[in-house]
TrEMBL record:
Protein name: lytic cellulose monooxygenase (C4-dehydrogenating)
Catalyzed chemical reaction(s): [(1->4)-beta-D-glucosyl]n+m + reduced acceptor + O2 = 4-dehydro-beta-D-glucosyl-[(1->4)-beta-D-glucosyl]n-1 + [(1->4)-beta-D-glucosyl]m + acceptor + H2O
Signal sequence interval, chain numbering: 1-19
Organism name: Lentithecium fluviatile CBS 122367
Recorded family membership: Belongs to the polysaccharide monooxygenase AA9 family.
Length: 297
């Protein structure tokens, strides 16, 4: 009985895992770190409800998405990340430094060096098959300052989060599929680079740096999230504070902006009225701005 259960789980995983990914690697000023170094790892398999996917049961592989109904800690930084927090190193950066992150679609037991080293164009991950991003949605990064008196290796992310990066979509007025998500390159190559600067105005201190792609669609509560969190220690010249942030998981509830789309937007035909990307406003280093796409002529 036990082996049959495992076989069934493996069979389900093999077919589904091709559709998922995890952000597993970070570069600092163009230097790629070893996979999962400075990034909290996840525990897999991990049993959590998978809302809207009852046929797949509670089993989750490493690359499976996180959903709003999962544990708050899972939504913040990936499943069971706190079990790996104490062992995760802290990356020292200066405010204004460049960060890039890269994804992996293969489960850790399948990882080989050629998926991470010697990649074309200095990329952080590569593989001759299946290194696309096959879910449409924005790629984003957030900072959460660690409370005073707490070390980042103990911090679960219950404080505020401020968005510092969004890679959204290009609007194509003359195409049938008008919403062209920039990260979504299924059957296109290559995947774009996910690179941005820690805002120069970021105050000194430790932070969780959360990276995610959110695939929202027209089924409320069904949005898939792919969160990973890095530990960073920022040295900056600003003595202020980050602007007021948002709470996770609350900002990713089904009725929050950008988390449930119309059928038309979910299928890329049009942009919903008053659409904003999920995760609250974007901090440009000076002020918070609405995180809305540019709908060109
Ligand atoms: Cu997927």
């Amino acid at each position: 009985m036990v082996s049959m259960t495992i076989l069934a789980a493996l069979a389900a995983t093999t077919t589904v895992v091709q559709g998922h990914f995890t952000f597993v690697r970070i570069a600092h000023n163009g230097i790629w770190q070893h996979p999962t170094r400075y990034i909290r790892n996840k525990t897999a398999p991990f049993n959590e409800t998978w809302f809207n996917q009852p046929g797949l049961g509670p089993y989750h592989g490493y690359n499976f998405p996180t959903e709003y109904v999962n544990l708050p800690e899972s939504v913040r930084c990936g499943r069971d990340n706190m079990a790996h927090a104490a062992d995760t190193e802290v990356l020292r950066v200066a405010a204004g430094d460049e960060i890039e992150f890269a994804h992996q679609r293969y489960e850790p037991e399948e990882w080989t060096d050629d998926m991470f080293y010697g990649c074309p164009e200095g990329r952080g991950t590569c593989h001759k098959y299946g290194m696309d991003i096959n879910h449409p949605g924005p790629v984003m990064a957030f900072l959460s300052p660690v409370p005073k008196g707490v070390d980042v290796r103990e911090y679960g992310g219950a404080g505020e989060w401020t968005k510092i990066y969004t890679l959204g979509f290009r609007y194509r007025k003359n195409e049938t599929l008008k919403v062209d998500w920039l990260a979504y390159n299924w059957e296109k190559t290559p995947v774009p680079r996910f690179a941005f600067k820690i805002p120069p105005q970021t105050p000194s201190g430790q932070y969780l740096l959360r990276m995610d792609l959110i695939w929202a669609y027209s089924l409320a509560g069904g949005a898939q999230m792919y969160p990973s969190c890095a530990h960073i220690d920022v040295s900056g010249i600003s003595t202020g504070q980050l602007p007021a942030g948002v709470q996770i998981p609350e900002i990713f509830s089904p009725d929050s902006p950008g988390m449930t789309l119309s059928w038309e937007m979910g299928n890329q035909y049009s942009v919903d009225a008053n659409y904003s990307h999920p995760g609250g406003p974007l901090w440009d280093g000076e002020k918070l701005v609405p995180d809305k796409p540019v709908i060109g002529e």
